[in-house]
Amino acid sequence: MARNPLVAVVCGSRSDLPTLRGCFDVLDSYEIAWEASVISAHRQPEALRQYVADAEGEGVRVFIAAAGLAAHLPGVVASLTGRPVIGVPLDGGALGGADALYSVVQMPPGVPVAGVAIGSAGARNAAHLAARILALGDQAITERVQAFRADQAGRAEPRIDPRADAAGATARS
Ligand code: RP5
């Protein structure tokens, strides 16, 4: 965790934290200061209101909110701040995260939440998206985003031997 975080990651339960691991790793890879909190929109609504107000006052620019089941956390955070909110729907069990996905993306007009994929893929993309938002006003983060994209683009593997060991796949001659 860092002083003067630019990104606040909030989730509804400690049980969500393992799925968010990649989110923290990606933020670290961009050298973006972040902080994490476990505050449920349903169980601790007053604490959530207070936290969002405090975080805004302390300079948080982007909120990432992750929750499972009836995932109201991202929407409630968006109701409490004018800053960008990225919602990560999590797999809470019976409905495999579709319940949370619908909750995250079906926001009423005027209260936007940027929804990403269910689970760990979405958690990582939430961090990538936060980096791209912050990059609009930060040259160092812009350069790190460009470097990530260039590295990713350079990893194409045309004409591999698909039966070779995955780590040592060789170009087909
Ligand atoms: C949601 O309910 C949380 O985000 C979590 O995904 C789900 C279950 O919470 P716990 O019962 O594990 O605390 O609010």
Number of helices: 6
Rounded mean pLDDT score: 95
Helix proportion range: 25-40%
Oligomer: single chain
Task: Summarize the helix and strand pattern as letters.
Answer: EHEHEHEHEHH
What is the CA-based Rg, rounded?
18 Å
Structure class: alpha/beta
Main pleated sheet: 5 strands, parallel
What hetero molecules are in the model?
5-O-phosphono-beta-D-ribofuranose
In whole angstroms, how far apart are the ends?
A: 49 Å
Tell the overall outline: globular
**Which residue ranges are poorly predicted, with pLDDT under 50 across at least 5 consecutive positions?**
none
* DSSP strand count: 5
How big a fraction of the residues is strand?
5-15%
Strand neighbour order, sheet with most strands: 2-1-3-4-5
Could you walk me through the main structural features you see in this protein, from its secondary elements to its overall organization?
It contains 6 helices and 5 strands, in the order βαβαβαβαβαα. It is α/β, with parallel strands linked by helices. A 5-stranded parallel beta sheet has the order 2-1-3-4-5, sandwiched between helices. Helix 1 runs parallel beside helix 5 and helix 5 crosses helix 6.
